[in-house]
Amino acid sequence: MTDDSDLPLFRWRPQCRVIAYPPARRIGKARDVAAKWLQQKTRKQADAYAIRIDDDLDDHLMRLGVHEQERKAMRDGFWQTVRREIARLQRCDSRPGGSAA
């Protein structure tokens, strides 16, 4: 009689994979980045801030073990969310009478 533990099925272990929370869904973070980006005094400062945030996000995803292509797609999704928040904040600021109108 053979031992069931000798079967390859019992020795097989699936590869572990970390599923990162999609940065594009981090609305609070995107709103914070958008507000701080708009507060920068010059375009150069705003660009430097965006580069720093992008590098930090890439480092975070890399530490989680996310592959390079997937990291790029996740970062692109995050920046789309940030751009939407920037547009929303600019619309609110440009309304006559403020955002309560």
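That was protein one. Protein two is written in the same sequence-then-structure order:
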Amino acid sequence: MGMFDMLKNAKDMVDQAKGFQQGAMKSQQAAAQPVNLNDPMWAPIEGVTLDLYAEISAGLMKNAVMGLEAVNKYAESKGVPSGAWQKVQNGWVARMGTNEPVRMRFGNLYNEFLK
């Protein structure tokens, strides 16, 4: 590899790092903005709020609940309608994939509930 190729690769790496940094800053800025709790991204799914979803998710991990039947039973014991856990889980995961504030709040709540 010649010197010019090495310089070009170094420049590309710097540009890529700048892009990552800008993305991280954008995420931090989005997380710092006040949220409108009336926004549909916060609407409960099958009656399950994000807070309850985080509590149940952490409880499943903390208590090593495994298997579909055991997971559903645990979720139902926390107030999830019978047979609705998979829809709840899929719904919140989808929202976290498209809404940074939802993802950030879930992460914070999940970590707190794991303590």
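The chain has a mean pLDDT of 86. Keep this in mind for the problem set.
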